[in-house]
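ok trying again, last paste got cut off:
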Amino acid sequence: MRQQVVFWCLCVLMSPIWAAESRDVFLSKSGESFSAYEARANAFLQTHKEWVKEQDSAREVSAVMPFELQPDPEECAASPKVGVLLSHGLSDSPFSMRDPARALQAACYQVRVILLPGHGTRSSDLLFVDEDDWRDAFQSAADVFKQEVDVLYVGGFSTGGALAAEYAWQNPQSVAGVILFSPLFKINSSIDWLSPMLSYFKDWLDNYPTDDFAKYASIPVPAIASAYRLAKDVRNRLIDNPQAIPVFMALSEDDQTVDATVSKTVFKKAMVSSKSQMLLYSRLQPNANTDRVRIYNTNWPQQRILGLSHMAIHGDPQNTYYGEQGRYRICSWYLEEPLNYQACRSDQANWFGEKSEALLEKSKHAARVSWNPTFDSLMKQVSNFIEATVDLG
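nice, full thing came through this time. structure:
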């Protein structure tokens, strides 16, 4: 008996302090209209966002807001009412989904992008949410959206992709297809399983202030643990229950954030529809096509790009912030090396890619690529996928 008391006392002592605090985060409300959701998000962000530059607060709020894009009523008058619900990933914001959302809007689809709880404000807010809050947000948005469109597709980037796949597998009669960009089915680490245990002892491995108004520079350990649990749950759910739901998946074999090998396994074992497609970007493999898989080589020396990063897959080179000539360059690999960080940000002849020895041989301060030179081709293939799989019943 005494041992049990000691054990539970230790558990209480190990529990993070934040667990006992009240949560002041933006959460979903079941059945809420999207316009009400947007208005509530705007009010919350105005008072809770940590500014990079307070004088740019209007732009910074706009960047992280959930949003909806409607197709052109004249050009798309003859098109069926197809809705696409998208979610961003861990540490990101709806800004990361702007490029694919705009491309889908131009293809005559109605697009909604949600804001996951704990995001868009300050990284410490991720201490007050977990994977169930993210699930609730995606489910609430999808349940409302499917009542307003003829056909619903769900999708997302990274963690958002895992949420979309899980929703589709739980609601196969409601979802016509799934669109995944760099989906999270396993964190790319051999010790990711330690994160839930470590979260009892430690809130942060590092905690850098962000100079990027659209995403966080650091992720707390409990949020990494939530992502680990979500990825494991979704991976097992899908593999244990293969479905004929059409899936479009685009990912990089060189991804240092998610394990692309596991994603490929999930696609092969769980996403069994003959209409499912996987686009695999690889700096080592040559271009190749099979019935369900296309491989694109990403060794592009003319553009000083060696491999696509986790976040680059769905990035438009024309994006004025993250694009090829954008205002912001991703140099977070060097946050502890100020000289390399500044060189990475300013070198006009720098190389770009996903972190690897081969890339760093090109430049000791290479930047993380945040755009896909073949973005237009990618989104054309997404549109073709929707056209080929839409079912008006």
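cool. The domain at 22-301+374-389 is CATH 3.40.50.1820 (Rossmann fold). Confidence is low (pLDDT under 50) at residues 1-20.
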